[in-house]
Amino acid sequence: MELDLSPKLAKKVYGDDGGSYYSWCPNELPMLREGNIGAAKLALEKNGFALPRYSDSSMVAYVLQGAGVAGIILPESEEKVIAIKKGDAIALPFGVITWWYNKEDTELVVLFMGDTSKGHKPGQFTDFFLTGSNGIFTGFTTDFVERAWDVDDDIAKALIGNQKGKGIVKLDANVKMPEPKPDHRKGMALNCEEAPLDTDIKNAGNVVLLNTQNLPLVGQVGLGADLVRLEGNAMCSPGFSCDSALQVTYIVKGSGRLQVVGVDGKWVLETIVKAGNLLIVPRFFVVSKIADPGGLSWFSIITTPNPMFTHLAGSIGAWKAISPEVLQAAFKVPAETEKLFRSKRTNDAIFFPPPN
């Protein structure tokens, strides 16, 4: 049975006036289950508060829109309260407790992508809430709460029953929340829109890689990530992950054409991708993209903290390393054709500007 690789949009799971939580379903995007990958989005309105929670999966969070505050509590560590804004990537290992708050007029939107191989449901995150109508306090009887936290009956009942919200609530404007601490941000987040570029091709595109060098926590998460920006009508070289990693891609901005070629040289997908789409390319399949005139940007996670890719075109393409005689024999072409083929794309690596 062939897998459906077509890109999909997220669907709302829960939410109210404080905001909403969206998720991609493995039943609609089977590669999530096949690859043990989860993907979800949190959207908070002004004064929206995502209640403290932890997940059964390690993941990378990426701020798609807006600005806000995140609370991050690593196991047996103090709470880190950090300011977050569009372009921020945050690594969230197993066991991390997080909360998210938006006090601005602009909606705060955070993307989550991660590894569900140790989770309860392949291809889906399961969150465990500390408070709220589905929080852990509601599952314990009052006498357990009293004894565990050394409180009287009235306090125990308040802890269990006062917060009626589920997952996301809207706080009163006068509620005081912790202010972010600049020193807490170090090592916790990297802004991909402001970070030094790992590759920058004039009139074509650029990329910022998220790895153990610029955000060491991704080593604990076991994932790498990148933000790729392709200029209008530019092309991304056909290539594949050469270390058996899966690449999960979310289209951040713009639109463009995408083609995927799989086993036996078979075309497996041609589609138009646009902002909000999520797609997964199977291991070792070759993928290429061409941006529409307005450009194309995407954020990807890769299921290894220091990913490696093989590109099949451009100045660093694998063809350049193969001897001329082998290419002639492999393509069954004369020397003149091989020389012409090799002479092309000697200056462009990874991204190709629009044709003249």
Automatic annotation (TrEMBL):
<keyword id="KW-0758">Storage protein</keyword>
<dbReference type="InterPro" id="IPR011051">
    <property type="entry name" value="RmlC_Cupin_sf"/>
</dbReference>
<dbReference type="InterPro" id="IPR050253">
    <property type="entry name" value="Seed_Storage-Functional"/>
</dbReference>
<feature type="domain" description="Cupin type-1">
    <location>
        <begin position="3"/>
        <end position="157"/>
    </location>
</feature>
<dbReference type="InterPro" id="IPR006045">
    <property type="entry name" value="Cupin_1"/>
</dbReference>
<dbReference type="InterPro" id="IPR014710">
    <property type="entry name" value="RmlC-like_jellyroll"/>
</dbReference>
<keyword id="KW-0708">Seed storage protein</keyword>
<dbReference type="InterPro" id="IPR006044">
    <property type="entry name" value="11S_seedstore_pln"/>
</dbReference>
<dbReference type="GO" id="GO:0010431">
    <property type="term" value="P:seed maturation"/>
</dbReference>
<keyword id="KW-0732">Signal</keyword>
<keyword id="KW-1015">Disulfide bond</keyword>
<protein>
    <submittedName>
        <fullName>Glutelin type-B 5</fullName>
    </submittedName>
</protein>
<comment type="similarity">
    <text>Belongs to the 11S seed storage protein (globulins) family.</text>
</comment>
<dbReference type="GO" id="GO:0045735">
    <property type="term" value="F:nutrient reservoir activity"/>
</dbReference>
<feature type="domain" description="Cupin type-1">
    <location>
        <begin position="195"/>
        <end position="339"/>
    </location>
</feature>
<dbReference type="Pfam" id="PF00190">
    <property type="entry name" value="Cupin_1"/>
</dbReference>
